[in-house]
Write a structure and sequence with these properties.
The complex is a heterodimer of chains A (43) and B (283). By secondary structure, chain A is mostly helical. Chain A has one helix and no strands. Chain B is an alpha+beta fold and 283 residues long. In chain B, 65% of the residues lie in helices and 14% in strands. In chain B, a hairpin with a 4-residue loop joins β4 and β5. The radius of gyration of chain B is 76 Å and the shape is rod-shaped. The chains are: A mainly alpha (43), B alpha+beta (283).
Chain lengths: 43, 283
């Protein structure tokens, strides 16, 4: 077992940025679907 | 090696996540326009469907109407076709009649030409006959004139005959009277006459036409209006007078049927003789 560093790198930050972008995209899609009478509960 | 792949995957994940976020945002941003466009399209589609339905209804109506009109027109066409067939037959008959009429016309034209030639010949004959009639009329007029002349002559002759008959009767009476006188004087009328017998002087009255003296003015000649037709004869003595005055005695020297010329006996002259003085045998 080699010793691994626990300090976050730039790539960890990029991963979070990607997560945020996906979430924002999902929010946009949900809002768009609301315009067509779609609700999250009704599926 | 694993670190490099992980890093690449992380970067790819980041890129695609950002793309996903951008596309979702774009969809959220333009969805209203797309919806409006879709609604308009839907409305247009609905309107088009309504128009299509109306047009289909109109089409049905028009189809029904046109079918009815087609039936009517077909019936009319059939009638017209029958009528045309009838007219065609009539036309054929008319053409036949026309052909016959043209033949008749040609025949009549030929007859007409013959009749015209006949008419011209008749006209020529009529003109000739008129000329002949005119000539005959002229001859007739001439004959009438000649006949009238002959009738006049005939009347004159009849008058002369009647006058001669009257004179004959008078002469017979005179002869009878003379015979009676001779018997009373004891003279036989059948005895021959010995010596010259003076002519009987009849009562003749006339007038002086012209009086003229000769070149030596020693004698005067008088032309009178009576001649031998009136009983005047040569050497006859006549008396010239005016009113009741005796002028002279003349002796006839020239006698013509309707006039005579006398020489004035100067021993008997008691006046000047002028025109229109009276002349008589028994003054």
């Amino acid at each position: 077992m080699s010793q691994q560093s626990s300090d976050p790198t730039i790539y960890d930050g990029l991963m979070f940025v990607s997560l945020g972008a996906v979430i924002v995209g999902i929010v946009f899609l949900i809002m768009s679907l609301d315009g067509y009478g779609w609700s999250a509960g009704a599926g | 090696m694993n670190n490099i792949v992980s890093k690449i995957l992380i970067v790819a994940n980041l890129v695609f996540s950002l793309c996903f976020m951008c596309f979702a945002g774009a969809v959220f941003t333009f969805q209203d326009g797309w919806r409006d466009k879709a609604n308009k399209t839907q409305e247009q589609l609905t309107s088009a469907n309504g128009q299509v339905s109306q047009l289909l209804g109109d089409k049905e109506l028009l189809t029904t109407k046109h079918a009815k009109e087609f039936g009517d027109e077909k019936a009319r066409a059939n009638k017209a076709e029958a009528k045309v067939n009838g007219l065609d037959l009539n036309l054929k008959q008319a053409i036949g009649n026309l052909t016959n009429a043209e033949k008749e016309r040609d025949k009549h034209l030929v007859d007409l030409q013959v009749a015209q030639q006949e008419m011209q010949a008749r006209q020529t004959e009529t003109n000739d006959a008129r000329a002949e009639i005119k000539r005959l009329r002229d001859q007739n007029n001439e004959a009438i004139a000649v006949r009238r002349g002959l009738e006049d002559e005939n009347l004159e002759m009849e008058g002369a005959i009647a006058e001669a008959g009257t004179r004959e009767v008078q002469f017979l009476k005179e002869i009878t009277h003379l015979n009676e006188l001779l018997r009373l004087n004891k003279i036989d009328p059948r005895d021959p006459v010995i010596g010259p017998v003076p002519k009987v002087v009849e009562m003749v009255d006339g007038f002086v036409v012209e009086s003229r003296k000769n070149s030596s003015r020693s004698a005067e000649l008088v032309q009178i209006s009576v001649g031998s037709d009136d009983g005047v004869f040569k050497h006859m003595k006549m008396t010239v007078y005016r009113d009741s005055n005796f002028l002279a005695t003349i002796q006839i020297t020239e006698v013509y049927p309707d006039k005579a010329v006398g020489l004035v006996i100067e021993e008997t002259r008691s006046g000047t003789i002028e025109r229109r003085d009276n002349v008589t045998t028994k003054f």
